[in-house]
């Protein structure tokens, strides 16, 4: 029979064609016998029958799409050769099909060889060539032996005579030995060549020798051969075979077993054949998600398999699942999606992002889990180019403003500022200058030193988006107070930024004709999605470690105690709850180191535990005065020392939390020689323990005094509230409480 590919219903198939006029009578008889067997034999490891047509002139046999094993092995050898893992599973399937025929159907194949094996799209081997199948019950048959039709097949016959008294399967397992020899060594030149092992793996040699032994009675049953090879250390005992067997039985496995399997699968996928991953693992992963079998653990292997798909296949198979995943309430699922967004963002179209993904992602901004809030901020680096006008300039800015003013995690507030600077080119030109000025001004008043430095660097990195009037009237007045900031690195960055803006103003003053050139980007429209290749490249490489870019190698202790731990190998998930003592001591350090009354922790609203911002805090530009300050609307609340990026207080030898001053962080990775344009993208830190120890001694007494004052104020307010409550008395049922 010949094999061609065809398609009638949209699904690919293979068609085996036999022309009666071109064959002999024996060949026609064998073709009809094979046609009949294919329709009646059903097994996962036997070539699947789809349809067929028998006429006086020809036979058409339609099966699943397959490739002859010989052609498959040749193609593999040209591309680097078939791996032992793939061959081990193929032999496992072939022996299992042979065992089914011999032990369950009481049939003999009588035609086993490379010509009788076919490979489907997933790389799985299917047993075909059913032309010479006969019963093992001794029933008479009119089918001619294979060597009569094709004399070249005689070398595959066992050496003993047909009636030598051997086991009924002895002939088939001998041919199985010939098949194994050809798979590893190529076409068999003569029967005597079976004595030369060639490239047959050592684990398989003893079992192979049993198959081609001279004594037919000693040749093992296919089922026993399979069992022997599956023993510990055997050729069929490996992760690939185990994974395949689990996938075949996944429907009856316990949920815990499925979870563990998908978790371990990610580690093994890199060594598995590509076709197997695309056509066998991927459907199982999609099914597991659809029926809620494994939850978030399917994401990692799903994205690994997705790398093997074309853009069209990815759009068709993976994207619908991803869009559905974003609506999940499972936190583990949501955070993994955000962490791995760079793997699929290029396949998402703008319509899907704005209508189906972004509305679900924004819930992460208000999540109680800091890790989810942080990953949501980072994901905006990738989503911003695809967001429409409303989502980017209104919805996203509203959430960013809320995070910057009210989030209790300093690194998240810092990352929000950094992210805003990175997505500035995409903002609406009419809104951009006001938003950036207000946001970075807010950041410069943050109690977290890294946030203040990020605000300064944000101004410097986006300097071309401000008019000279804005620079002189709002930005420079905002930056100047930072020249006396408690943190030396913040001061250094402030001086650099001020010099940059002054140079800009001096240039226009000396030559007013340059004004148009300097302000050309102020009213420039936002970049279209996908047009910033360099920005996208930064996002892909930097989004997974945005926080560590800002606060790497920082000493622990203050709220700025940062990702020195992370860079030492501590994962984000290892971050514990903040130490209360560290928070209080840290607060006193900041409040006694140059903060005025409005920016200290002694604000009555915060001490009262009611640190809620006014509605105006939900948007930028509405809660600033004419000077761009936040003297009234921005009231810092006590910040936790913990973020989702491993911000863990570091204890000293005395058993107390070791706190470092904010000046310990060196924000200039270029040693103070970076240009204004690269300040924002090259933020890093280096520890400066010596200066930190000196400053700690200087502020220790002031910190204790400030701490006592706040404690007295808190007790006084609590006493007043208790008196008011006692004076009012208990409320009666149905009465309204009027304040």
UniProtKB/TrEMBL annotation:
One of its GO terms (molecular function) is ATP binding. Residues 584-595, 633-645 have a biased composition (Low complexity). Gene3D superfamilies: Leucine-rich Repeat Variant, Phosphorylase Kinase, domain 1, Transferase(Phosphotransferase) domain 1. Pfam families: Pkinase (PF00069). Residues 675-688 have a biased composition (Polar residues). It comes from the Eukaryota. Keywords: Coiled coil, Repeat. The keyword Coiled coil applies. HEAT repeats lie at residues 357-395. Residues 694-706, 713-726 have a biased composition (Basic and acidic residues). Regulates COPI-mediated retrograde protein traffic at the interface between the Golgi apparatus and the endoplasmic reticulum. Involved in the maintenance of the Golgi apparatus morphology. Belongs to the protein kinase superfamily. This is N-terminal kinase-like protein. It comes from Astyanax mexicanus (Blind cave fish).
């Amino acid at each position: 029979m010949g094999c061609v590919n065809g398609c009638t219903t949209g699904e690919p198939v293979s068609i085996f064609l036999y022309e009666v006029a071109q064959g002999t009578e024996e060949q026609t008889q064998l073709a009809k016998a094979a046609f009949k067997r294919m329709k009646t034999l059903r097994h996962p490891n036997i070539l699947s029958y789809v349809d067929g047509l028998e006429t006086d002139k020809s036979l058409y046999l339609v099966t699943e799409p397959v490739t002859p094993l010989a052609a498959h092995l040749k193609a593999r050898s040209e591309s680097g050769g078939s791996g032992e893992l793939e061959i081990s599973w193929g032999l496992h399937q072939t022996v299992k099909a042979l065992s089914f025929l011999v032990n369950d159907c009481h049939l003999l194949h009588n035609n086993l060889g490379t010509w009788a094996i076919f490979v489907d799209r997933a790389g799985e081997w299917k047993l075909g060539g059913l032309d010479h199948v006969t019963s093992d019950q001794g029933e008479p048959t009119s089918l001619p032996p294979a060597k009569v039709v094709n004399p070249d097949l005689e070398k595959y016959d066992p050496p003993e005579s047909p009636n030598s008294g051997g086991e009924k399967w002895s002939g088939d397992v001998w041919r199985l030995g010939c098949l194994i020899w050809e798979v590893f060594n190529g076409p068999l030149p003569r029967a005597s060549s079976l004595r030369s092992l060639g490239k047959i793996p050592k684990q398989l040699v003893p079992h192979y020798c049993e198959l081609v032994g001279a004594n037919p009675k000693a040749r093992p049953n296919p089922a026993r051969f399979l069992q022997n090879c599956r023993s510990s250390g055997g050729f069929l005992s490996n992760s690939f075979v185990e994974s395949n067997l689990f996938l075949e039985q996944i429907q009856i496995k316990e949920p815990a077993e499925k979870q563990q399997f998908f978790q371990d699968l990610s580690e093994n996928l890199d060594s598995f054949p590509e076709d197997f991953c695309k056509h066998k693992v991927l459907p199982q992963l999609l099914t597991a998600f659809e029926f809620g079998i494994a939850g978030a653990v399917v994401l990692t292997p799903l994205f690994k398999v997705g790398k093997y798909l074309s853009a069209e296949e990815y759009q068709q198979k993976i994207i619908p699942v991803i869009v559905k995943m974003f609506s999940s309430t499972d936190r583990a699922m949501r955070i993994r999606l955000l962490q791995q967004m760079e793997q699929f963002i290029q396949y998402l179209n703008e319509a899907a992002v704005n209508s189906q993904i972004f509305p679900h992602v924004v819930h992460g901004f208000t999540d109680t889990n800091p890790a989810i809030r942080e990953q949501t901020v980072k994901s905006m680096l990738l989503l911003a180019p695809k967001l429409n006008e409303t989502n980017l300039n209104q919805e996203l800015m509203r959430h960013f403003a809320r995070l910057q003013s009210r989030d209790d995690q300093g690194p998240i507030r810092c990352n929000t500022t950094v992210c805003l600077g990175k997505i500035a080119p995409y903002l609406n030109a009419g809104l951009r200058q006001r938003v950036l000025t207000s946001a970075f001004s807010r950041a410069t008043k943050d109690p977290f030193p890294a946030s203040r430095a990020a605000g300064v660097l944000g101004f410097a990195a986006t300097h071309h988006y401000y008019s000279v009037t804005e620079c002189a009237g709002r930005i420079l007045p905002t930056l100047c107070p930072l020249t006396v900031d408690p943190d030396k690195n913040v001061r250094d960055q402030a001086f650099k930024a001020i010099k940059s803006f002054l140079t800009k103003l001096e240039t226009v003053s000396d030559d007013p004709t340059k004004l148009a050139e300097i302000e050309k980007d102020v009213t420039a429209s936002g970049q279209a999605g996908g047009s910033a290749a360099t920005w996208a490249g930064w996002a892909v490489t930097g989004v997974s470690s945005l926080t560590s870019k800002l606060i790497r190698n920082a000493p622990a202790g203050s709220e700025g105690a940062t990702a020195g731990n992370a860079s030492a190998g501590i994962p984000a998930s290892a971050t514990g709850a903040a130490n209360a003592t560290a928070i209080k001591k840290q607060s006193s350090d900041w409040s006694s180191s140059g903060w005025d009354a409005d920016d200290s922790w002694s604000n009555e609203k915060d001490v009262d535990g009611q640190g809620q911002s006014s509605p105006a805090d939900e948007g930028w530009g509405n809660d600033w005065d004419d000077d761009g300050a936040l003297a009234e609307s921005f009231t810092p609340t006590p910040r936790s020392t913990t973020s989702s990026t491993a911000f863990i207080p570091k204890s000293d030898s005395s058993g107390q939390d070791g706190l470092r001053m904010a000046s310990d962080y060196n924000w200039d990775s270029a040693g103070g020689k970076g240009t204004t344009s690269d300040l924002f993208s090259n933020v890093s830190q280096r520890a400066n323990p010596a200066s930190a120890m000196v400053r700690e001694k200087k502020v220790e007494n002031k910190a204790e005094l400030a701490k006592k004052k706040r404690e007295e104020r808190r007790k006084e307010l609590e006493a007043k509230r208790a008196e008011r409550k006692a004076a009012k008395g208990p409320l009666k049922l149905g009465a309204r409480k009027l304040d």
